[in-house]
Amino acid sequence: DRIIGRGGFGKVYKGELDSGELIAVKMLHPLQGLDEDLFKNEVCNNLLKVDHPNVIGLLGYCDELHSEFVEHKGDNIAAKHVYRGLCFEYFPNGSLHKHLSGTMERNFSTVFFLIINFSYL
Ligand SMILES: Nc1ncnc2c1ncn2[C@@H]1O[C@H](COP(=O)(O)OP(=O)(O)OP(=O)(O)O)[C@@H](O)[C@H]1O
Fold first, then answer.
1. Ligand 1 pocket test: which of 95, 99, 101 has the largest number of ligand atoms within 8 Å of its C-beta?
2. What percent of the chain shows pLDDT beyond 90?
């Protein structure tokens, strides 16, 4: 019930820090085959340093590996589960796609309205 969106890399959840600040937590799909060093390099060296008014700020990340036993074809096998998440500042206005498509629908309705009215003149 905390899912606020879905993107190419996985689901995005609404979260809350101890301070009460709202955040968006993007959990990367476990099959996103990003090498551990590459992930840390991208996140630590690049994304965390980006500071620009037009770019949503990355507040932190989680990169955990859990080994667990799971049943597979009747056997118990050791599996590794990667939990990777990115925590961003929370922006409450929904998806850009929704706003753009909403605007386009309104523009199309206006055009149709004008065409119909001009055809009566
Ligand atoms: N920082 C945020 N604050 C509030 N909502 C967010 C935030 N980031 C993402 N969302 C919500 O989650 C949805 C999916 O975001 P996400 O960034 O995963 O999708 P995307 O634009 O397809 O990017 P990508 O392909 O890089 O995953 C957005 O459309 C938005 O509704």
1. 95
2. 31
Quote ipTM for the complex. 0.91
Q: Tell me how far apart the terminal alpha carbons of the chain are, to the nearest angstrom.
A: 53
Residue 31 banded pLDDT, cuts 50, 70, 90: low
Residue 26 is labelled as binding a ligand: yes
Residues 89/17, Cβ–Cβ less than 8 Å? no
CA of 37 to the centre of ligand 1 (A): 24
Gap between the Cα atoms of 85 and 14, Å rounded: 12
Strand ranges across the sheet with 10-16: 3-7, 10-16, 22-28, 75-89, 58-72
Token output for 28: 């990367």
Domains and CATH numbers, the chain: 3-90 (3.30.200.20), 94-121 (no CATH)
Report the pLDDT value the prediction gives residue 108, as an integer from 0 to 100. Answer: 66
pLDDT of residue 54: 87
Task: Give CA–CA dist 107/88, Å, rounded.
Answer: 33
